[in-house]
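Q: I'm writing up a methods section and want to include an example of the input and output format. Could you take the sequence below and give the corresponding predicted structure tokens, formatted cleanly so I can copy it straight into the document?
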Amino acid sequence: MAYDFDEVIERRGSWSTRWEKFPEQIIPLWVADTDFRAPPAVLDAIARRAAHGVFGYSAPPAELRDVVVERMQRLYGWRIEPGWVVFVSGVVPGLHLAARHCLRADQHALAPIPVYQHLKRSLELARRANTDVPLVLSNGRWVWDEDALAAAARSNSRLLMLCNPQNPGGTIFTRAELSRLAAFAEKYDLVICSDEIHADILLDEGKPHVPIASVSRETCRRTVTLISPNKAFGFPGAGCAFAIIEDPELRRAFSSDHHATVHDASVFAYEAALAAYRECGGWLEAQLAYLRSNRDLVEKRVASMPGLKMAHVEATYLAWIDASGLGVADPYQHFIKHGVAMSPGAQFGAPGYVRLNFGTRRALLEKALLRMKENS
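A: Here is the clean output for your methods example:
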């Protein structure tokens, strides 16, 4: 079946966070959602539930737990139990639950930098002590500085935050890299909170995603793995997420705010997730092929722009662009002034960078890249 990712879909007027923040003359390539219509099977599932007409309180469907269990085994060889799955309304609430309930007020966390801002924000809002551990470029990939990681550990360190695949750098961490990280967590008796929302958005063929919890049974017992179909299948505004937590005490701690400060996912989210995982593999492959071409276009064009450079993007639909060579005080504001809104690098801990979302139709991406070239 053919899918049209070049379709022009007007998002202004639809309450879009991304499209309604800036004036119409600015191309918004910032917050990480795509401009693609959700898969037909997802739309059909939501429509069927809407036609039912009764939208009462809903429990997470047992069949969705079973689909998650089957998916982890099939994709990663990771055997989990249905009871390990804790449904939440999104990965971001899951990060905040982990920061509050898997880490005491007198304990310390380690977090990578640059990183998706909510990993760091969850620790700040929970008022938990934390140390930034730099990622470094090695052979064109953003990876952990393992010496800096070891130096940052304290006697009261308890939580290690991970973003896998990495946002904003686009790295697919290898099994060897994750095994070393897992060994570090075991040595210092750390819980790992791993944001794996981009696990299905793999652009480099032959480079598999490895959930860190699948590295060993010991690692699984100390890990909170946060996953969601929202990002890969295009329904973050109507989606759900889930944590996979083997250890019963860790699972109880993570779940302690259920119905206290965190609400359930909606019935439409459960329907969308089931349809995405059961029926939309072909759509996902087609989207990845389109995103792969967009990624190649961005890398080629950025390489030709004076003052800009970027590492290769292995996963996600996000380009992490080093704009420090432009010689401007604020690259984010510089490009807004010239008609392209990206995410500011300061948000991720790196003020000299911007993050570009290339999950959009190619004609619009071409237009944005032209504006960037003319003003770099």
